[in-house]
């Protein structure tokens, strides 16, 4: 009995000893990490509760990704002044961090975004302070009445592009007036106006409500036109259909001209992105895409805008892209720039783009436009799946 008791105590002591050693190791290695883990959880709760970007939460990150501003404060310190002798930036930026934590709290102001981006200069331009960028990218954003979305996009996009060590500029192409919105025509305007200012080697056509969630999704052009918004949260982070070309795409000036730019005649919602996708192949090119792991975007939820009703003619128009792409596009775009403002975070170009009837003619009656030919489309090159068609 005594021997049994002795061995029982021995095992108990051994067990306690092991526990002590484990605890000692844990507190040496992991104490700091564990404390900051709990602080992060605490901060996340705080952010959700207050719904604002508080001083702490701006730096918070969690398992869904890191803080898009992490590392960037080092850049300001590394500023050498722009001498002739700057080396090229490395082929892969050392600032890239992978997944980004994206949230949309209500308290953010544009002034805060300006303060967070001290190296961005007039008109939303940036060049890496310590190396010569290998890529010059213009971001073109079609816009009307979406200031609250623009604020979030700017908050995330500026540091995202700085982490990629790009020479970049952000252009917001603002449609003047209340006539039906025309996303693709605004892109044509953006292309011409941005190229007028600088010899950009890549143009990103970017919806205002899509926030990239991984900075390995590099905003540089490929050998073929690139569609980058391939995994959006609203589509369950999957491509909704094979020919989908909406949301965000990247083309070099050469790609753009090869396909005669984008169509000018899609007024209202839908179909213009499918037309652009078809133009890529009609121009003798392919659609390139990043992997679904990095081509991830979070969409800022919203309803269909006033002045952007679903275009009832889109399927008939799409069926004719093969006949129309050379007759309508960059070679026929007509518009009038009403103002050009160099704001701290972007260049704003407000533009008059007219109506279906031309730049100065009175608008056609909505009834006459809604009339669709009785015959169904003969050829529907970029026909999306029935599920999506039925949704509209
Ligand atoms: N845009 C504006 N203002 C508008 C309309 C569109 O700025 O009034 C721009 C903006 O950049 C937007 C893009 O055009 O991100 C595309 O328009 P959208 O966001 O309305 O299109 P999306 O397909 O969303 O992303 C539509 C939501 C509901 C569609 C339901 C159709 N049945
Ligand atoms: C297709 C539209 C596209 C649109 C896509 C996603 O059906 O323009 O749905 O729409 N094509 C036509 O209507 C011909 S979404 O789910 O984002 O509203 O981009």
TrEMBL record:
Please name the Pfam families in this protein's record: Glyco_transf_7C, Glyco_transf_7N
Annotated Low complexity bias: 362-373
Q: Which residues form the Galactosyltransferase N-terminal domain?
A: 89-222
Q: Which UniProt keywords apply?
A: Disulfide bond, Glycoprotein, Glycosyltransferase, Golgi apparatus, Manganese, Membrane, Metal-binding, Signal-anchor, Transferase, Transmembrane, Transmembrane helix
* Record region (Disordered): 362-392
> Which ranges are annotated Pro residues under compositional bias?
374-384
Q: What Gene Ontology terms for biological process does this UniProt record contain?
A: carbohydrate metabolic process
- Domain Galactosyltransferase C-terminal: where? 227-303
UniProt GO cellular component terms? Golgi cisterna membrane; Golgi membrane
InterPro entries, alphabetically? Galactosyl_T, Galactosyl_T_C, Galactosyl_T_N, Nucleotide-diphossugar_trans
For the protein in the UniProt heading, the enzyme class is transferase
Q: Which reactions fall under this protein's catalytic activity?
A: N-acetyl-D-glucosamine + UDP-alpha-D-galactose = beta-D-galactosyl-(1->4)-N-acetyl-D-glucosamine + UDP + H(+)
Keyword match Glycoprotein: yes
Which pathway, metabolic or otherwise, does it act in? Answer: Protein modification; protein glycosylation
Would I find Protein transport among this entry's keywords? Answer: no
Which cell locations does it reside in?
Answer: Golgi apparatus membrane
Q: Which family does it belong to?
A: Belongs to the glycosyltransferase 7 family.
> What is the name listed in the Swiss-Prot or TrEMBL entry for this protein?
Beta-1,4-galactosyltransferase
The record lists the lineage as: Eukaryota, Metazoa, Chordata, Craniata, Vertebrata
């Amino acid at each position: 009995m005594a021997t049994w008791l002795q061995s029982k105590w021995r095992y108990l002591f051994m067990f306690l000893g092991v526990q002590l050693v484990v605890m000692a190791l844990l507190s040496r290695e992991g104490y700091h990490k564990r404390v900051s883990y709990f602080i992060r959880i605490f901060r996340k709760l705080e952010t959700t509760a207050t719904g604002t970007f508080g001083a702490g939460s701006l730096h918070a990150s969690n398992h869904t990704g890191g803080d898009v501003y992490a590392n960037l404060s080092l850049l300001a310190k590394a500023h050498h002044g722009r001498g002739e002798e700057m080396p090229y930036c490395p082929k892969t930026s050392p600032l890239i961090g992978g997944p980004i934590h994206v949230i949309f709290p209500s308290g953010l102001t544009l002034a805060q975004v300006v303060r967070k981006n001290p190296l961005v200069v007039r008109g939303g331009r940036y060049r890496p302070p310590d190396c010569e960028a290998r890529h010059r990218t213009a971001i073109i954003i079609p816009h009307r009445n979406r200031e609250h979305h623009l604020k979030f996009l700017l908050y995330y996009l500026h540091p995202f592009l700085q982490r990629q060590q790009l020479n970049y500029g952000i252009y917001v192409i603002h449609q003047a007036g209340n006539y039906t919105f025309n996303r693709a025509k605004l892109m044509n305007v953006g292309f011409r106006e941005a190229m007028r200012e600088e010899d950009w080697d890549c143009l990103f056509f970017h919806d205002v409500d899509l926030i990239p969630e991984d900075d390995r999704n590099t905003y540089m052009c490929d050998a073929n036109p690139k569609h980058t918004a391939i995994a959006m949260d609203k589509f369950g982070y999957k491509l909704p259909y094979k020919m989908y070309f909406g949301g965000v795409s990247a083309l070099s000036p050469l790609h753009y001209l090869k396909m005669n730019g984008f169509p000018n005649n899609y007024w209202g919602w839908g179909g213009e992105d499918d037309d652009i996708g078809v133009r890529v192949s009609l121009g003798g090119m392919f659609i390139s895409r990043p992997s679904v792991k990095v081509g991830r975007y979070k969409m800022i939820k919203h309803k269909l805008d006033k002045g952007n009703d679903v275009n009832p003619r889109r399927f008939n128009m799409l069926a004719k892209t093969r006949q129309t792409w050379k007759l309508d596009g960059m070679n026929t775009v007509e518009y009038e720039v009403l103002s050009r403002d160099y704001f701290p975070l972007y260049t704003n170009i407000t533009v008059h783009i007219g109506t279906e009837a031309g730049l100065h003619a009175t608008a056609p009656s909505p009834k006459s436009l809604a009339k669709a030919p009785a015959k169904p489309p003969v050829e529907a090159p970029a026909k999306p799946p029935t599920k999506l068609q039925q949704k509209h």
